[in-house]
Amino acid sequence: MLNSDTRAWTEIDLSKISHNVEEVRKLIPSTSKIMAIVKANAYGHGDVACAKELVKCGIDFFGVSSIDEAVNLRENGIKEEILILGYTPPIHFPLLVKYNILQTFVSLEYAQKANAFAKAYDVVIRGHVKVDTGMSRIGIICQDHEYHIDDVVNVYRLPNLDVCGIFSHFSVSDYLDEENKRFTENQIKLFDRVLDDLRHVGIEPGTKHLQNSYGILNYPDLKYDYVRPGLLWMGVTSDDAIEIRTNPDFIPILSWKANVSLVKQIQPGVSVSYGRHFKASETRKVATVAIGYADGFPRCVSNKGYQVLIHGQYAPIIGNVCMDQMMIDITGIEDVKEGDIVTIVGNDGDKQIKIDELSRLANTINNETLCWIASRVPRIYK
Ligand SMILES: *Cc1c(COP(=O)(O)O)cnc(C)c1O
């Protein structure tokens, strides 16, 4: 068995990635391509293993957070284009050149620094310019009240940079109420206005991209060169309770499991775990499971009735989640013993627990819950 030498682990079903990639391709125009976002270790799924599988699915462009993520992909054999979506400290500019990595130019000042470095060392730094159409995070501000097209033009004209693309980022593409729809539509308009203004002064903007996962789901018809899904190729959205305009069929590629370490009966009145928040009102059967908040299972989900799966049946967590362990009530579930597999997220028999349920109880979105899964939890690839 996969689990025999570990206490808590994830299983990543790489074979489902191609299905999810095809679902994205069905949504978008045939002329648009996919830049797979694999930042933050592919939201905990393992960036190298997933990127290699994505290459097999025809992906030729990756997005990451940082220079170390980009270099790690290169050193593990990823030869496709890689764009760092965020900031790289100037001290690491040499690595951009050495590993042929595309950098986001987050401002004119930053691009000028990159240009000065490139000039001094007689090299070219390649990258995409970011325009801020409403996120107010990074990028040259191109919004209604403040529109710095001259700065964008000036980035393109820096002689030692190869500015081969341009992008922006949605802030509310997951919300479909009128106000937020208007905001997103205005972001699209502003991005198009930037592209038009560039062409008017004779600049060909290069590779254009705008949509994250919800941008794809809710605005699938946009015809830019690339879309930038992270969640979708992993088979999830931020929260499956959020309404979307399209009806795709994504399959989560991640399951999260742990071993039972001990099974016991507890008598009426006996309390379980730190804080004694669970007290047995009658005789109960309890299993201790070898997973806790140091594995990334959120402690704030304690005592909220979250149910895991064991022997194909639901069993609630009882008492506080500990650092390395938790307890579940298995009263009525037959033959549970040490070494049995508990499914924290995923399928067991005909039942399924989606990570969305865990995220909602933790008052967050799947994006964050996935990132919580600790590095000590082995990723086992199927
Ligand atoms: C993280 C990120 C994405 C991917 O977001 P998802 O919601 O996972 O699709 C796309 N673009 C940028 C700039 C990002 O930072």
UniProtKB/TrEMBL annotation:
Known catalytic reactions: L-alanine = D-alanine
EC number: 5.1.1.1
Family annotation (Pfam families): Ala_racemase_C, Ala_racemase_N
Catalytic residue list: 39 (proton acceptor), 274 (proton acceptor)
Cofactor(s) needed by this chain: pyridoxal 5'-phosphate
Domain Alanine racemase C-terminal: 253-382
Residues recorded with modification N6-(pyridoxal phosphate)lysine: 39
Signal peptide annotation: none
Annotated substrate binding sites: 137, 323
InterPro entries per record: Ala_racemase, Ala_racemase/Decarboxylase_C, Ala_racemase_C, Ala_racemase_N, Ala_racemase_pyridoxalP-BS, PLP-binding_barrel
Record keywords, A-Z: Isomerase, Pyridoxal phosphate
Pathway, per record: Amino-acid biosynthesis; D-alanine biosynthesis; D-alanine from L-alanine: step 1/1
Protein family: Belongs to the alanine racemase family.
NCBIfam families: alr (TIGR00492), vanT-G-Cterm (NF033131)
Stated role: Catalyzes the interconversion of L-alanine and D-alanine. May also act on other amino acids.
Record's protein name: Alanine racemase
This protein's encoding gene: vanT
